[in-house]
Protein backbone atom coordinates (compact mmCIF):
# COMPACT_ATOMS: atom_id res chain seq x y z
CA UNK A 1 0.00 0.00 0.00
CA UNK A 2 1.44 3.38 -0.90
CA UNK A 3 1.17 6.29 1.45
CA UNK A 4 2.38 9.85 1.52
CA UNK A 5 5.22 11.06 3.72
CA UNK A 6 2.70 13.56 5.13
CA UNK A 7 0.91 10.64 6.84
CA UNK A 8 3.95 9.52 8.82
CA UNK A 9 6.44 12.38 8.93
CA UNK A 10 6.97 16.06 9.61
CA UNK A 11 9.39 18.45 7.99
CA UNK A 12 10.65 22.03 8.18
CA UNK A 13 12.17 24.10 5.40
CA UNK A 14 14.92 26.66 5.87
CA UNK A 15 17.09 28.68 3.50
CA UNK A 16 20.65 29.93 3.36
CA UNK A 17 21.19 31.98 0.23
CA UNK A 18 20.33 29.76 -2.70
CA UNK A 19 20.53 26.58 -0.61
CA UNK A 20 17.37 24.91 0.67
CA UNK A 21 17.47 22.83 3.84
CA UNK A 22 14.71 20.30 4.51
CA UNK A 23 14.56 18.37 7.77
CA UNK A 24 12.49 15.20 8.03
CA UNK A 25 11.32 13.38 11.14
CA UNK A 26 8.88 10.51 11.72
CA UNK A 27 5.68 11.44 13.58
CA UNK A 28 6.19 8.14 15.41
CA UNK A 29 9.84 7.31 16.12
CA UNK A 30 9.36 3.65 15.13
CA UNK A 31 9.02 4.81 11.51
CA UNK A 32 12.57 6.22 11.38
CA UNK A 33 14.10 3.11 9.74
CA UNK A 34 11.41 3.28 7.04
CA UNK A 35 12.22 6.95 6.33
CA UNK A 36 15.94 6.23 6.32
CA UNK A 37 15.42 3.40 3.83
CA UNK A 38 12.95 5.07 1.47
CA UNK A 39 13.80 8.76 1.46
CA UNK A 40 17.20 8.84 -0.20
CA UNK A 41 18.95 11.92 -1.56
CA UNK A 42 18.30 10.68 -5.13
CA UNK A 43 14.60 10.24 -4.42
CA UNK A 44 14.33 13.76 -2.98
CA UNK A 45 16.18 15.21 -5.96
CA UNK A 46 13.84 13.40 -8.34
CA UNK A 47 10.68 14.30 -6.41
CA UNK A 48 11.54 18.01 -6.31
CA UNK A 49 13.21 18.13 -9.73
CA UNK A 50 11.17 21.17 -10.83
CA UNK A 51 12.72 23.13 -7.94
CA UNK A 52 16.19 21.69 -7.40
CA UNK A 53 18.93 22.64 -9.84
CA UNK A 54 21.91 21.35 -7.87
CA UNK A 55 23.05 18.46 -5.74
CA UNK A 56 21.26 17.04 -2.69
CA UNK A 57 23.21 15.84 0.35
CA UNK A 58 21.52 13.70 3.01
CA UNK A 59 22.70 13.94 6.63
CA UNK A 60 21.53 11.25 9.04
CA UNK A 61 21.19 11.87 12.76
CA UNK A 62 19.93 8.53 14.08
CA UNK A 63 20.10 9.58 17.77
CA UNK A 64 17.56 12.25 16.93
CA UNK A 65 15.57 10.13 14.47
CA UNK A 66 16.19 12.83 11.92
CA UNK A 67 17.21 13.22 8.30
CA UNK A 68 18.43 16.48 6.84
CA UNK A 69 18.58 17.29 3.13
CA UNK A 70 20.85 20.11 1.99
CA UNK A 71 19.81 21.09 -1.53
CA UNK A 72 22.12 23.40 -3.45
CA UNK A 73 21.06 25.84 -6.15
CA UNK A 74 17.44 25.27 -5.15
CA UNK A 75 15.82 28.65 -4.68
CA UNK A 76 15.92 30.40 -8.05
CA UNK A 77 18.89 32.56 -6.91
CA UNK A 78 17.79 32.96 -3.29
CA UNK A 79 15.37 35.00 -1.25
CA UNK A 80 16.75 38.43 -2.00
CA UNK A 81 16.47 38.33 -5.79
CA UNK A 82 14.13 35.45 -6.67
CA UNK A 83 10.94 36.12 -8.63
CA UNK A 84 9.19 33.15 -7.03
CA UNK A 85 6.03 33.59 -4.96
CA UNK A 86 7.69 31.84 -2.03
CA UNK A 87 11.21 33.18 -2.39
CA UNK A 88 12.38 31.63 0.92
CA UNK A 89 11.04 28.22 -0.07
CA UNK A 90 9.26 28.02 3.28
CA UNK A 91 6.38 26.01 1.79
CA UNK A 92 8.69 23.36 0.33
CA UNK A 93 8.62 21.18 3.45
CA UNK A 94 5.12 20.27 2.34
CA UNK A 95 6.32 19.54 -1.20
CA UNK A 96 8.66 16.95 0.32
CA UNK A 97 5.78 15.48 2.36
CA UNK A 98 3.86 14.86 -0.89
CA UNK A 99 6.34 12.09 -1.72
CA UNK A 100 4.74 8.64 -1.99
CA UNK A 101 6.53 5.77 -0.29
CA UNK B 1 26.01 32.86 38.85
CA UNK B 2 24.81 29.25 38.82
CA UNK B 3 22.29 29.86 36.06
CA UNK B 4 20.87 32.66 33.94
CA UNK B 5 17.47 33.15 32.41
CA UNK B 6 17.13 34.58 28.90
CA UNK B 7 13.93 35.25 26.96
CA UNK B 8 13.62 35.74 23.23
CA UNK B 9 10.88 38.24 22.44
CA UNK B 10 11.31 38.59 18.66
CA UNK B 11 12.63 36.24 15.99
CA UNK B 12 12.61 38.63 13.03
CA UNK B 13 12.16 42.33 12.33
CA UNK B 14 8.42 42.10 11.71
CA UNK B 15 7.66 39.90 14.72
CA UNK B 16 4.75 40.57 17.10
CA UNK B 17 5.30 43.18 19.81
CA UNK B 18 3.45 41.77 22.82
CA UNK B 19 5.32 38.49 23.46
CA UNK B 20 8.38 40.50 24.58
CA UNK B 21 6.22 42.57 26.94
CA UNK B 22 4.75 39.42 28.47
CA UNK B 23 8.19 37.83 28.81
CA UNK B 24 9.63 40.88 30.54
CA UNK B 25 6.69 41.32 32.86
CA UNK B 26 6.14 37.70 33.85
CA UNK B 27 9.23 35.79 32.77
CA UNK B 28 11.54 36.71 35.65
CA UNK B 29 14.30 37.26 33.08
CA UNK B 30 17.91 38.29 33.53
CA UNK B 31 18.17 39.06 29.81
CA UNK B 32 15.75 39.70 26.99
CA UNK B 33 16.97 39.18 23.42
CA UNK B 34 15.24 40.62 20.37
CA UNK B 35 16.61 39.18 17.11
CA UNK B 36 15.40 41.50 14.35
CA UNK B 37 17.97 41.40 11.56
CA UNK B 38 17.83 39.19 8.47
CA UNK B 39 20.38 39.25 5.63
CA UNK B 40 18.38 41.63 3.54
CA UNK B 41 17.02 43.69 6.45
CA UNK B 42 20.44 45.24 7.02
CA UNK B 43 20.92 46.10 3.34
CA UNK B 44 17.52 47.83 3.38
CA UNK B 45 18.53 49.67 6.55
CA UNK B 46 21.80 50.80 4.92
CA UNK B 47 19.76 52.26 2.12
CA UNK B 48 17.57 54.21 4.57
CA UNK B 49 20.69 55.50 6.29
CA UNK B 50 22.10 56.74 2.97
CA UNK B 51 18.92 58.75 2.46
CA UNK B 52 18.80 60.04 6.06
CA UNK B 53 21.85 59.79 8.37
CA UNK B 54 19.57 59.72 11.43
CA UNK B 55 17.77 56.58 10.30
CA UNK B 56 18.93 53.07 9.43
CA UNK B 57 18.02 51.37 12.71
CA UNK B 58 15.12 48.89 12.91
CA UNK B 59 11.83 50.41 11.77
CA UNK B 60 10.01 48.99 14.81
CA UNK B 61 12.66 50.07 17.36
CA UNK B 62 10.63 53.02 18.56
CA UNK B 63 7.43 51.03 19.07
CA UNK B 64 9.18 48.12 20.73
CA UNK B 65 11.27 50.27 23.11
CA UNK B 66 8.40 52.56 24.12
CA UNK B 67 6.50 49.59 25.51
CA UNK B 68 9.47 47.68 26.86
CA UNK B 69 11.66 50.29 28.51
CA UNK B 70 9.63 50.82 31.72
CA UNK B 71 9.27 47.04 32.16
CA UNK B 72 12.96 46.34 31.55
CA UNK B 73 14.01 48.88 34.18
CA UNK B 74 11.36 47.77 36.68
CA UNK B 75 12.30 44.09 36.42
CA UNK B 76 16.08 44.65 36.14
CA UNK B 77 16.19 42.82 32.83
CA UNK B 78 18.94 43.74 30.39
CA UNK B 79 18.06 43.93 26.71
CA UNK B 80 20.36 42.62 23.98
CA UNK B 81 19.16 43.38 20.47
CA UNK B 82 20.45 43.82 16.93
CA UNK B 83 17.81 46.48 16.25
CA UNK B 84 20.68 48.91 15.72
CA UNK B 85 20.80 47.44 12.19
CA UNK B 86 22.80 49.78 9.92
CA UNK B 87 22.94 52.64 12.42
CA UNK B 88 23.17 51.58 16.09
CA UNK B 89 24.36 55.05 17.16
CA UNK B 90 21.22 56.70 15.77
CA UNK B 91 19.18 53.90 17.36
CA UNK B 92 20.78 54.59 20.75
CA UNK B 93 19.97 58.29 20.44
CA UNK B 94 16.38 57.41 19.65
CA UNK B 95 16.24 55.20 22.77
CA UNK B 96 17.54 58.08 24.92
CA UNK B 97 14.90 60.33 23.40
CA UNK B 98 12.19 57.82 24.33
CA UNK B 99 13.61 57.52 27.86
CA UNK B 100 13.53 61.29 28.31
CA UNK B 101 9.94 61.40 27.10
CA UNK B 102 9.03 58.69 29.64
CA UNK B 103 11.15 60.43 32.33
CA UNK B 104 13.36 57.37 32.72
CA UNK B 105 17.12 57.08 33.03
CA UNK B 106 18.84 54.53 30.83
CA UNK B 107 22.31 53.61 29.65
CA UNK B 108 22.77 52.12 26.18
CA UNK B 109 25.96 50.39 25.01
CA UNK B 110 26.34 50.29 21.26
CA UNK B 111 28.38 47.62 19.49
CA UNK B 112 30.19 48.89 16.39
CA UNK B 113 32.55 47.47 13.81
CA UNK B 114 30.35 45.23 11.67
CA UNK B 115 30.20 47.80 8.85
CA UNK B 116 33.17 46.91 6.63
CA UNK B 117 31.96 48.61 3.46
CA UNK B 118 35.03 50.89 3.33
CA UNK B 119 37.30 47.85 3.31
CA UNK B 120 35.81 46.39 0.12
CA UNK B 121 37.68 46.62 -3.16
CA UNK B 122 34.84 45.11 -5.17
CA UNK B 123 37.21 42.53 -6.61
CA UNK B 124 36.43 39.99 -3.86
CA UNK B 125 34.82 36.80 -5.09
CA UNK B 126 31.37 35.89 -3.75
CA UNK B 127 30.89 32.57 -2.01
CA UNK B 128 27.72 31.96 -4.02
CA UNK B 129 28.95 32.30 -7.59
CA UNK B 130 32.70 32.86 -7.31
CA UNK B 131 32.12 36.09 -9.26
CA UNK B 132 33.61 39.47 -8.36
CA UNK B 133 31.34 41.63 -6.20
CA UNK B 134 31.38 44.44 -8.74
CA UNK B 135 29.83 42.17 -11.37
CA UNK B 136 26.58 41.97 -9.37
CA UNK B 137 25.70 45.66 -9.56
CA UNK B 138 26.21 48.79 -7.52
CA UNK B 139 27.35 47.75 -4.02
CA UNK B 140 25.49 49.42 -1.16
CA UNK B 141 26.49 47.68 2.05
CA UNK B 142 28.86 45.19 3.64
CA UNK B 143 28.32 43.93 7.17
CA UNK B 144 30.41 41.32 8.92
CA UNK B 145 28.83 38.82 11.28
CA UNK B 146 30.43 39.72 14.60
CA UNK B 147 30.52 37.27 17.49
CA UNK B 148 30.69 37.32 21.28
CA UNK B 149 34.06 39.13 21.21
CA UNK B 150 32.24 42.23 20.05
CA UNK B 151 29.45 42.09 22.59
CA UNK B 152 31.28 41.09 25.79
CA UNK B 153 32.85 44.55 26.38
CA UNK B 154 29.34 46.02 26.18
CA UNK B 155 28.10 43.53 28.78
CA UNK B 156 30.99 44.51 31.04
CA UNK B 157 29.52 48.02 31.30
CA UNK B 158 26.42 48.59 33.41
CA UNK B 159 24.29 49.50 30.39
CA UNK B 160 20.73 48.18 30.56
CA UNK B 161 20.47 48.00 26.78
CA UNK B 162 23.03 46.53 24.40
CA UNK B 163 22.33 47.66 20.85
CA UNK B 164 24.16 46.01 17.97
CA UNK B 165 24.23 45.87 14.20
CA UNK B 166 25.10 42.64 12.33
CA UNK B 167 25.97 39.92 14.80
CA UNK B 168 25.53 36.15 14.45
CA UNK B 169 22.15 35.35 15.98
CA UNK B 170 23.33 32.65 18.45
CA UNK B 171 26.04 35.04 19.71
CA UNK B 172 23.32 37.33 21.10
CA UNK B 173 22.55 34.49 23.54
CA UNK B 174 26.02 33.02 24.01
CA UNK B 175 27.50 36.35 25.12
CA UNK B 176 25.44 36.71 28.33
CA UNK B 177 26.13 33.03 29.13
CA UNK B 178 29.89 33.66 28.97
CA UNK B 179 29.54 36.91 30.89
CA UNK B 180 27.42 35.54 33.74
CA UNK B 181 28.45 31.89 34.05
CA UNK B 182 32.20 32.42 34.05
CA UNK B 183 32.80 30.44 30.87
CA UNK B 184 36.06 30.71 28.96
CA UNK B 185 35.84 31.50 25.26
CA UNK B 186 38.63 28.97 24.77
CA UNK B 187 36.30 26.21 25.96
CA UNK B 188 35.02 25.08 22.56
CA UNK B 189 32.73 22.50 24.15
CA UNK B 190 30.83 25.14 26.15
CA UNK B 191 30.84 27.50 23.14
CA UNK B 192 29.21 24.67 21.17
CA UNK B 193 26.62 23.93 23.85
CA UNK B 194 25.76 27.60 24.27
CA UNK B 195 25.47 27.99 20.51
CA UNK B 196 23.03 25.07 20.38
CA UNK B 197 20.87 26.81 23.00
CA UNK B 198 21.12 30.16 21.23
CA UNK B 199 20.18 28.61 17.91
CA UNK B 200 17.13 26.97 19.50
CA UNK B 201 16.00 30.34 20.87
CA UNK B 202 16.83 32.77 18.07
CA UNK B 203 13.62 32.36 16.04
CA UNK B 204 11.40 32.99 19.09
CA UNK B 205 7.95 31.53 18.29
CA UNK B 206 9.38 28.86 16.01
CA UNK B 207 10.34 26.70 19.00
CA UNK B 208 7.12 27.35 20.90
CA UNK B 209 5.05 25.72 18.17
CA UNK B 210 4.63 28.59 15.71
CA UNK B 211 6.18 27.60 12.38
CA UNK B 212 5.66 24.01 13.56
CA UNK B 213 1.86 23.86 13.81
CA UNK B 214 -0.32 21.72 11.54
CA UNK B 215 -3.89 21.27 12.77
CA UNK B 216 -4.04 17.72 11.38
CA UNK B 217 -0.75 16.10 12.41
CA UNK B 218 0.81 18.61 14.81
CA UNK B 219 -1.91 20.64 16.57
CA UNK B 220 -0.77 23.51 18.79
CA UNK B 221 -3.13 25.16 21.33
CA UNK B 222 -3.95 28.88 21.59
CA UNK B 223 -1.78 30.07 18.72
CA UNK B 224 -3.43 33.51 18.79
CA UNK B 225 -1.60 34.13 22.07
CA UNK B 226 1.58 32.21 21.19
CA UNK B 227 4.16 32.62 23.93
CA UNK B 228 7.83 33.17 23.11
CA UNK B 229 10.55 31.05 24.73
CA UNK B 230 12.49 31.32 27.98
CA UNK B 231 15.85 29.61 28.44
CA UNK B 232 17.47 28.73 31.75
CA UNK B 233 21.16 28.05 31.16
CA UNK B 234 23.30 26.23 33.71
CA UNK B 235 27.06 26.36 34.22
CA UNK B 236 27.55 22.94 32.61
CA UNK B 237 26.03 24.18 29.33
CA UNK B 238 22.70 22.42 29.71
CA UNK B 239 19.47 24.34 29.48
CA UNK B 240 15.74 24.24 30.07
CA UNK B 241 13.37 25.83 27.58
CA UNK B 242 9.93 26.94 28.75
CA UNK B 243 7.44 29.78 28.33
CA UNK B 244 5.25 32.01 30.47
CA UNK B 245 2.32 30.20 32.09
CA UNK B 246 -0.95 31.03 30.38
CA UNK B 247 0.52 31.84 26.96
CA UNK B 248 -0.32 29.68 23.94
CA UNK B 249 1.92 27.34 22.00
CA UNK B 250 3.74 24.10 22.58
CA UNK B 251 7.29 23.15 23.55
CA UNK B 252 8.26 19.51 23.19
CA UNK B 253 10.85 17.26 21.59
CA UNK B 254 9.25 17.64 18.16
CA UNK B 255 9.16 21.44 18.15
CA UNK B 256 12.77 21.50 19.39
CA UNK B 257 14.07 19.07 16.77
CA UNK B 258 12.52 21.07 13.94
CA UNK B 259 14.13 24.24 15.26
CA UNK B 260 17.51 22.65 15.99
CA UNK B 261 17.96 21.69 12.33
CA UNK B 262 16.38 24.87 10.92
CA UNK B 263 18.67 26.53 8.36
CA UNK B 264 21.48 24.15 9.28
CA UNK B 265 23.55 23.09 6.27
CA UNK B 266 25.57 20.43 8.09
CA UNK B 267 24.56 19.32 11.61
CA UNK B 268 28.14 18.29 12.40
CA UNK B 269 29.62 21.66 11.42
CA UNK B 270 27.52 24.70 12.24
CA UNK B 271 29.71 27.78 11.67
CA UNK B 272 29.37 30.88 13.81
CA UNK B 273 32.00 33.55 14.53
CA UNK B 274 32.51 31.90 17.94
CA UNK B 275 32.78 28.20 17.24
CA UNK B 276 32.10 25.39 14.80
CA UNK B 277 29.31 23.64 16.67
CA UNK B 278 28.30 20.00 16.40
CA UNK B 279 24.55 19.47 16.90
CA UNK B 280 24.45 15.72 16.46
CA UNK B 281 24.77 14.77 20.13
CA UNK B 282 22.01 17.09 21.38
CA UNK B 283 19.40 15.39 23.58
CA UNK B 284 15.94 16.60 24.51
CA UNK B 285 13.96 15.47 27.54
CA UNK B 286 10.40 16.55 28.29
CA UNK B 287 10.47 17.26 32.04
CA UNK B 288 7.03 18.85 32.30
CA UNK B 289 4.32 20.38 30.16
CA UNK B 290 6.07 22.90 27.88
CA UNK B 291 9.31 22.33 29.71
CA UNK B 292 12.21 20.78 27.86
CA UNK B 293 15.69 19.93 29.06
CA UNK B 294 18.45 20.30 26.47
CA UNK B 295 21.81 18.59 26.97
CA UNK B 296 24.73 17.69 24.73
CA UNK B 297 26.12 19.32 21.66
CA UNK B 298 29.79 20.20 21.36
CA UNK B 299 32.16 22.50 19.56
CA UNK B 300 35.38 22.74 17.65
CA UNK B 301 37.73 25.70 17.36
CA UNK B 302 36.77 29.22 16.32
CA UNK B 303 36.80 29.89 12.54
CA UNK B 304 39.61 32.10 11.18
CA UNK B 305 37.26 34.00 8.92
CA UNK B 306 33.99 35.87 9.37
CA UNK B 307 31.12 35.93 6.92
CA UNK B 308 30.29 39.30 5.41
CA UNK B 309 26.90 40.03 3.81
CA UNK B 310 27.24 42.36 0.84
CA UNK B 311 24.17 44.18 -0.44
CA UNK B 312 23.88 45.39 -4.04
CA UNK B 313 21.30 47.07 -6.21
CA UNK B 314 19.60 44.39 -8.27
CA UNK B 315 16.99 46.39 -10.14
CA UNK B 316 13.22 46.24 -9.81
CA UNK B 317 10.54 43.60 -9.56
CA UNK B 318 7.08 44.40 -10.91
CA UNK B 319 4.14 42.11 -10.19
CA UNK B 320 0.53 41.89 -11.25
CA UNK B 321 -2.26 39.57 -10.10
CA UNK B 322 -5.81 38.90 -11.28
CA UNK B 323 -8.33 36.17 -10.38
CA UNK B 324 -10.64 33.86 -12.32
CA UNK B 325 -13.31 31.53 -10.89
CA UNK B 326 -15.95 29.04 -12.04
CA UNK B 327 -16.17 27.38 -15.46
CA UNK B 328 -12.88 27.32 -17.38
CA UNK B 329 -11.15 29.38 -14.67
CA UNK B 330 -7.75 27.78 -15.34
CA UNK B 331 -8.15 28.02 -19.13
CA UNK B 332 -8.98 31.72 -18.88
CA UNK B 333 -6.10 32.36 -16.47
CA UNK B 334 -3.72 30.55 -18.85
CA UNK B 335 -4.99 32.58 -21.80
CA UNK B 336 -4.42 35.76 -19.79
CA UNK B 337 -0.89 34.60 -18.94
CA UNK B 338 -0.14 33.90 -22.63
CA UNK B 339 -1.42 37.33 -23.62
CA UNK B 340 0.92 39.13 -21.20
CA UNK B 341 3.83 36.86 -22.07
CA UNK B 342 3.40 37.70 -25.78
CA UNK B 343 3.04 41.41 -25.15
CA UNK B 344 5.97 42.06 -22.79
CA UNK B 345 7.65 38.80 -21.71
CA UNK B 346 10.77 38.97 -23.85
CA UNK B 347 11.70 42.46 -22.66
CA UNK B 348 12.68 41.25 -19.16
CA UNK B 349 15.87 39.76 -17.71
CA UNK B 350 13.64 37.35 -15.80
CA UNK B 351 9.92 36.82 -16.28
CA UNK B 352 7.58 34.43 -14.55
CA UNK B 353 3.93 33.37 -14.87
CA UNK B 354 2.32 31.60 -11.92
CA UNK B 355 -1.12 30.16 -11.29
CA UNK B 356 -1.99 30.66 -7.63
CA UNK B 357 -4.18 27.80 -6.47
CA UNK B 358 -2.44 25.41 -8.84
CA UNK B 359 1.29 25.70 -9.23
CA UNK B 360 2.75 28.92 -7.81
CA UNK B 361 4.49 27.27 -4.87
CA UNK B 362 5.45 23.72 -5.87
CA UNK B 363 5.20 23.72 -9.68
CA UNK B 364 2.77 21.65 -11.71
CA UNK B 365 4.08 18.14 -11.12
CA UNK B 366 2.68 17.87 -7.58
CA UNK B 367 -0.74 19.38 -8.29
CA UNK B 368 -1.86 17.45 -11.37
CA UNK B 369 -5.04 16.05 -9.81
CA UNK B 370 -6.22 19.13 -8.00
CA UNK B 371 -8.83 21.23 -9.78
CA UNK B 372 -9.39 24.57 -8.09
CA UNK B 373 -12.65 26.49 -8.34
CA UNK B 374 -10.60 29.70 -8.26
CA UNK B 375 -7.29 30.52 -9.92
CA UNK B 376 -5.24 33.67 -9.44
CA UNK B 377 -2.83 34.62 -12.18
CA UNK B 378 0.39 36.13 -10.94
CA UNK B 379 3.00 37.63 -13.24
CA UNK B 380 6.40 38.91 -12.13
CA UNK B 381 9.21 40.51 -14.10
CA UNK B 382 12.64 41.76 -13.08
CA UNK B 383 14.47 44.59 -14.81
CA UNK B 384 17.08 47.29 -14.18
CA UNK B 385 14.52 49.65 -15.70
CA UNK B 386 11.96 50.78 -13.11
CA UNK B 387 9.39 51.89 -15.71
CA UNK B 388 9.56 48.51 -17.43
CA UNK B 389 9.08 46.67 -14.13
CA UNK B 390 6.07 48.86 -13.43
CA UNK B 391 4.58 47.83 -16.76
CA UNK B 392 3.96 44.28 -15.46
CA UNK B 393 1.23 45.41 -13.07
CA UNK B 394 -0.18 47.87 -15.59
CA UNK B 395 -0.49 45.19 -18.26
CA UNK B 396 -2.22 42.80 -15.84
CA UNK B 397 -4.64 45.50 -14.78
CA UNK B 398 -5.45 46.22 -18.43
CA UNK B 399 -6.84 42.68 -18.69
CA UNK B 400 -9.96 44.06 -16.97
CA UNK B 401 -11.33 45.40 -20.25
CA UNK B 402 -9.18 43.62 -22.81
CA UNK B 403 -10.04 40.18 -21.53
CA UNK B 404 -10.34 37.24 -21.16
CA UNK B 405 -13.78 37.19 -19.47
CA UNK B 406 -14.46 37.46 -15.78
CA UNK B 407 -11.07 38.61 -14.48
CA UNK B 408 -11.44 40.28 -11.07
CA UNK B 409 -9.42 41.67 -8.20
CA UNK B 410 -6.41 42.95 -10.13
CA UNK B 411 -3.53 44.22 -7.98
CA UNK B 412 -0.14 45.61 -8.94
CA UNK B 413 3.12 45.86 -7.00
CA UNK B 414 6.53 47.37 -7.61
CA UNK B 415 9.56 47.05 -5.39
CA UNK B 416 13.26 47.69 -5.54
CA UNK B 417 15.44 44.60 -5.29
CA UNK B 418 18.42 44.52 -2.98
CA UNK B 419 20.47 41.44 -3.61
CA UNK B 420 22.73 39.96 -0.96
CA UNK B 421 25.83 37.84 -1.52
CA UNK B 422 28.53 36.78 0.92
CA UNK B 423 32.29 36.88 1.18
CA UNK B 424 34.67 35.73 3.90
CA UNK B 425 37.00 38.15 5.62
CA UNK B 426 39.92 37.41 7.92
CA UNK B 427 38.73 38.05 11.48
CA UNK B 428 41.74 40.18 12.42
CA UNK B 429 40.72 42.71 9.73
CA UNK B 430 37.54 43.42 11.66
CA UNK B 431 37.80 45.59 14.75
CA UNK B 432 34.71 45.76 16.96
CA UNK B 433 34.25 48.65 19.38
CA UNK B 434 31.67 49.89 21.86
CA UNK B 435 30.28 53.31 22.67
CA UNK B 436 28.10 54.12 25.68
CA UNK B 437 25.22 56.61 25.71
CA UNK B 438 23.37 57.78 28.80
CA UNK B 439 20.18 59.77 29.30
TrEMBL record, chain A:
<protein>
    <recommendedName>
        <fullName>AtuA-like ferredoxin-fold domain-containing protein</fullName>
    </recommendedName>
</protein>
<feature type="domain" description="AtuA-like ferredoxin-fold">
    <location>
        <begin position="4"/>
        <end position="101"/>
    </location>
</feature>
<dbReference type="InterPro" id="IPR056362">
    <property type="entry name" value="AtuA-like_ferredoxin_dom"/>
</dbReference>
<dbReference type="Pfam" id="PF23544">
    <property type="entry name" value="AtuA_ferredoxin"/>
</dbReference>
TrEMBL record, chain B:
<protein>
    <submittedName>
        <fullName>Uncharacterized protein DUF1446</fullName>
    </submittedName>
</protein>
<dbReference type="InterPro" id="IPR010839">
    <property type="entry name" value="AtuA_N"/>
</dbReference>
<feature type="domain" description="Acyclic terpene utilisation N-terminal">
    <location>
        <begin position="4"/>
        <end position="433"/>
    </location>
</feature>
<dbReference type="Pfam" id="PF07287">
    <property type="entry name" value="AtuA"/>
</dbReference>
